[in-house]
Write a structure and sequence with these properties.
The structure is a homodimer of 679-residue chains.
Chain A lengths: L3 H4 L3 E2 L5 H24 L27 H16 L5 H17 L8 H6 L13 H19 L5 H14 L16 H12 L2 H13 L11 H9 L35 H20 L7 H18 L35 H17 L3 H15 L35 H10 L2 H4 E6 L2 E6 L5 E7 L2 E9 L6 E7 L5 E7 L8 E4 L12 E4 L1 H6 L2 E6 L5 E5 L7 E6 L2 E6 L13 E3 L6 E7 L2 E12 L4 H4 L7 E4 L12 E9 L12 E2 L2 E3 L1 E3 L2
Parallel strand pairs in A: 3-7, 14-20
Antiparallel strand pairs in A: 1-4, 2-3, 4-5, 5-6, 6-10, 7-9, 8-10, 11-12, 12-13, 12-20, 13-18, 13-19, 14-16, 15-16, 16-18
Helix pairs in contact in A: 2-3, 2-15, 3-4, 3-6, 3-15, 6-7, 6-8, 8-9, 8-11, 11-12, 11-13, 13-14
InterPro entries (chains A, B): 6-hairpin_glycosidase_sf (IPR008928), Beta-AFase-like (IPR049174), Beta-AFase-like_GH127_C (IPR049049), Beta-AFase-like_GH127_cat (IPR012878), Beta-AFase-like_GH127_middle (IPR049046)
GO biological process, one term (chains A, B): carbohydrate metabolic process
Organism (chains A, B): Pleurostoma richardsiae
Chain lengths: 679, 679
């Protein structure tokens, strides 16, 4: 029961921190700015079911421009509800009430609820489950309804949604007259499982599990894979496919090429993959509670671990970004991780990194292990946080690690396909749920602390209230103070993550000899320690800046600078001499990094200084054009020609701070590694 | 008038050499082996216009499997005619006669001549110029007819072809009732220009020039780009496109996104680009002769140079291979040149490197400059020659620089789309034409020698015969002896290329102080020297092995070994310990390379020895799975961890010799560069 969206309500960010500041900006800036975008783009009124000029516009087959509008509204409602509970706003409240009223009125008599298939193409319902996001939209509506009910304590949105889910349960399933389908863009699976957890609706659980288990069944519908079958029904030639499909029939784009249990590597569209696996992890969480045993659960967990490992070890950027391939917004070959489109690719969509966080959070519940929390924190502070400016009003959809003249490091207020901005809003809204999980019973309780910040959690076990307050200046300092209030009759265990980059270094005050980092990567404080020391301090070591490299097989030959969970970058705003997007800027791992405390618009951060140089291309510069594809290497030169290098004092800022200060949009994370040839 | 297909007849390979050996293998092995393939696959009989089971088979839209059959037959006829003149073979002669008789009988009354659109889809003629290779097939038939007439001295094939060209000239052109089209796969342009040169058919010239000048006209047909217009005619939705199209409407795939004169970089399908630019160069050659002035010829040459330079400097592999992208068999972004598909791509199709040779050969006539001949030689000895085994009976279509488990370094007897094998056959058949160009008049003559081997050329100027014999053991030795016979009344100038890798080093014997490499990269021997020294010897320097590197922006961080025009590779046949396709094998440019004379099946070659090592992945090896995407770099380690490296004695063979000795298909050209971090 520990999904972020449930837990956040018991967590309060009750002091200054980087995370609370980001939440504050979303609450104050993003919620209203996006409401305005919804109004301006026509989304706000779409459930009123009137014709909109966008519906007439040309679009690349088969996805009309308005296809995702339902989900944009739904995500905004969900996110807005999270923030309303903390800070009532009459304008936001009124908007939600109007939207809910529109949604209720938009529902068809049989429970169906989708704008495009009601207004634009009413006869084509369920005709293209693979591409048309019908079930994806339904999923987000379900999530909105859950958040709405939590805040409003009424069923005004839940009622139509429950009735829509009843319709879906009739339409999809293993029965003879049911469609043996599963959504092209997963999302409804995890939404249905949230619904089950919120309401106990067993039909919702069953439908989610059906979607997951049926996926990739090569003979699921009349002896065909469902997507092939529905293509035949539509009369499409089998080579007709969306623009981003690598080729006709490449069902790995949707993770539907084989059943999930048989998938050996993570493939295709990154967001789809993350949402799908999050739901698989949810099934395993529910299996663990015993409420809904999952047959073959060890195999399901093995599949999750296999795909997680493939992703983290071979298909993830240093920033936690995933997806090198722009064409299908997804995973490329193992170790294919160029930093920018001018070097062959880099997509790293915001929603994909949010998806990694969702998956990691569920996996932590399946098996407490710091590897999941490490990656979750990496994504949060880098791949995700970099996608929003400091005021919470401008965004990035794609998060490259290096800019180029064609793809500068710049932000937009909104996007035509605008999944990312409202996704950031609901993520920050529910952020408290990612910090820790907790529970207990039978005279015991526990809190597993995954992320450090300043925040408090209260929860009840056996009618007792446990309160844990953490106070820190994370990620700038590694010191975290804890204050626990737990009744003497309850044995409370607290587990504290030691991040991988700390390499086991930590101190505890008051100290305790028996306390060690265990095999899960957590420091376990048993009830006796907690009872004796209701206030204690954890000092995480290894917070000084360090160099990190991507796997050698990536052929990047770069070094990046990191500090704690933060990955740093260079920008032209600080390094104004740059003209080549730092393509020739080189650093050495033996250089000394110095820290400087800094502030930007009231946001404190640690800036880093480091001496580097600009590579001199030497002979390559003087080469006559069009003569030969390579060049002779004179024995034993420097690979980076040190003698001719121009020294540069480099300034690094956290990657999440990029594109906040104007400039020319030049930015890079991994810099050329300064090496020389050796024998 | 110096296209290889015209010149080769005046050249004889009259002594042992690597090139004459390859030609011999093609003559003895390939011609018959491919004739057998034509029989076995049904191609041989296709002009008999009977139904073939292949016509019923499913295929990816819109290209049926038999679409290219006409061209396979045509290329075989062309190549076979080249060899017949040297070595009569009754079986080959009989086959050509039968095929020509079939082709004559297959022609429609109006001159139309295409198997697919006669047998399979007779009503769809000219309905898809973009994708259906109708004009491509016509082009190859034209080239076959020229070669056929040259050998047979009759018009049995030329007659129907001329009549087909007349039909084409009616159908395509600027007139109100003509189609303002140009072929999706260029080929016919260069074929028509060859036809013009062979027969003086001005209509052929005009049609070729129309195709070239009209290409990319955004409003060419009823205000639309022709391909968009014909799509509308067919009623295709505009997103319907062949599998290899990167996206709908991406006309850069066909080099038709803008007119050629406005193209700033080389894009799209590599073979198409080369065939197209070859024809542009042909137009410039004809402009130079004055027979057919080309308006804006400086702009056309500027476009050719711009695209050539972009290709050679930023989109060509060390082997002369072009095309990193498998999906569209063509060019990727600047400097995107991974060595193998497991590293993100590498196509380097055989026909594309043959196309580079064709283009270079024409450019040499437009402007004598060794850069064109250098690249031509690089392609010949590497990207092209590597595509055929030693016996001339097995081939590669794709020529990666590094194998992987998924794409091993292996050969096939034939391919479903089998453009490459017969293309190799006709290239080797006409190889004499690439060695040199020559001409003269008004008491003068010249020979420009581009490639060194053992061969003789005879040609007549002002009723005088000039004979030049070159004798060498190229590419194993840099010494070339020349014997000239030229009448005393004719002033004969001889220009000898000094390859770029020789860096200007050469000696001439007898020596002559005033002889230097001029700005074109050629040593010019004036008539006085030639008259005085009818026998002389050129010694090209710099033939010892050297290291070469791709451009630093390729992010390859590799070194390759070269010797003269040859690029070398490592194979598991010699380095049997390899298990990882040499992914971790590292070499240093300071290592000593030793040569060893060797032989394989009677083919002498120089084998190279070099000490390298296997990179130890160190900490990466022991890393826990799924923990983080990067790893910390401890200050000042070796980038390649030298301490733990396993030394390896490496054996290198010429890249063209790969995949001739069984083995496990493991091969690599560029090896990791052994470096260490520096400050």
């Amino acid at each position: 029961m520990s999904n972020p969206q449930f837990l956040f309500r018991q967590t309060s960010f009750n002091g200054p921190s980087l995370l609370s500041d980001r939440r504050e900006k979303v609450r104050r800036g993003t919620v209203k700015a996006q409401l305005q975008q919804l109004h301006e783009t026509g989304r706000y009124d779409c459930f009123k079911l009137q014709w909109h000029p966008t519906y007439d516009e040309e679009y690349p087959w088969p996805v009309p421009k308005s296809l995702f509008w339902d989900s944009d509204i739904a995500k905004w409602i969900e996110g807005a509800c999270y923030f309303l509970s903390e800070d009532y706003d009459p304008e936001v409240d009124a908007a939600i009430r109007e939207l809910v009223s529109d949604i209720r009125a938009a529902q068809r008599e049989d429970g169906y609820l989708n704008v495009y298939y009601t207004v634009v193409a009413p006869k084509e319902r369920w005709s293209n489950i693979r591409d048309m996001h019908e079930l994806y939209n339904a999923g987000h509506l379900i999530e909105a309804a859950i958040a709405h009910r939590e805040y409003y304590r009424n069923d005004l949105l839940m009622e139509p949604i429950e009735s829509y889910v009843q319709l879906l349960s009739k339409v999809f399933g293993p029965g003879k007259d049911q469609r043996h389908a599963y959504p092209g863009h997963p999302e409804i699976e995890l939404a249905l499982l949230r619904l089950y957890k919120a309401t106990g609706d067993q039909a919702a659980y069953n439908l989610a599990r059906y979607f997951i288990e049926e996926r990739g069944n090569a003979t699921g519908q009349d002896g065909l894979l469902y997507y092939d079958w529905e293509e035949k029904q539509r009369g499409d030639p089998h080579w007709l496919r969306p623009n981003h499909y690598p080729e006709a029939g490449s069902h790995w784009y949707n993770q539907a090429h084989v059943p999930i249990l048989e998938q050996s590597s993570i493939e295709g569209h990154a967001v789809r993959a993350m949402y799908l696996l999050t739901a698989v992890a949810d099934l395993l969480c529910l299996d663990k509670t015993g409420s809904n045993p999952l047959p073959e659960s060890p195999q399901w967990y093995a599949a999750l671990r296999r795909l997680w490992n493939n992703m983290v070890d071979k298909k993830m950027y240093l920033t936690g970004g995933i997806g090198a391939m722009k064409q299908w917004e997804g995973f490329g070959a193992d170790y294919f991780l160029p930093q920018g489109t001018d070097e062959g690719g880099c997509y790293a969509e915001t929603c994909a990194s949010i998806g990694v966080m969702m998956l990691a959070e569920r996996l932590l519940e399946v098996e407490l292990n710091s590897r999941y929390a490490d990656v979750m924190e990496l994504c949060l502070y880098n791949g995700v946080m970099t996608a929003m400016n400091l005021s919470g009003t401008a965004f990035t959809y794609i998060n490259q690690l290096a800019s180029s003249d064609k793809d500068k490091s710049l932000r937009c207020d909104w996007f035509e396909v605008s999944c990312c901005p409202p996704n950031l809003m609901r993520l920050f809204g529910s952020l408290g749920g990612y910090l820790w999980d907790y529970g207990g019973g039978n005279g015991e309780s526990f809190v597993n602390v995954h992320l450090y910040t300043t925040a408090k959690v209260d929860f009840s076990i056996d009618r007792h209230t446990v309160t844990l307050q953490q106070t820190s200046n994370w990620p700038w300092e590694g010191r975290v103070r804890f204050d626990v209030q737990t009744p003497p009759t309850l044995k409370t265990t607290i587990r504290l993550r030691v991040p991988g980059w700390a390499k086991g270094r930590f101190t505890l005050e008051p100290s305790c000899e028996s306390v060690k980092v265990n095999e899960t990567g957590y420091v376990v404080l048993h009830a006796c320690y907690v009872t004796e020391h209701p206030t204690f301090t954890l000092q995480i070591g290894g917070m000084e800046p360090r160099f990190v490299e991507p796997h050698p097989y990536t052929n990047q030959n770069t070094l990046a600078v990191a500090r704690g969970p933060l990955i740093y970058c260079v920008e032209d705003a600080d390094n104004s001499w740059v003209v080549d997007h730092f393509k020739n800027t080189a650093i050495s791992s033996s250089a000394k990094i110095t820290e400087e405390k800094h502030e930007l618009d009231g946001n404190p951060f640690v800036l880093l200084h480091l001496s580097g140089s600009e590579r001199c291309l030497g002979a390559w510069h003087d080469k006559r054009e069009g003569t030969e594809p390579g060049a002779e290497v004179v024995p034993s030169p420097a690979a980076v020609d040190i003698a001719d290098d121009v020294p540069r004092d480099l300034v690094f800022v956290p990657y999440y701070l990029r594109a906040n200060r104007g400039g020319r949009g030049q930015m890079r994370v991994g810099l050329l590694r300064k090496t020389k040839d050796c024998c």
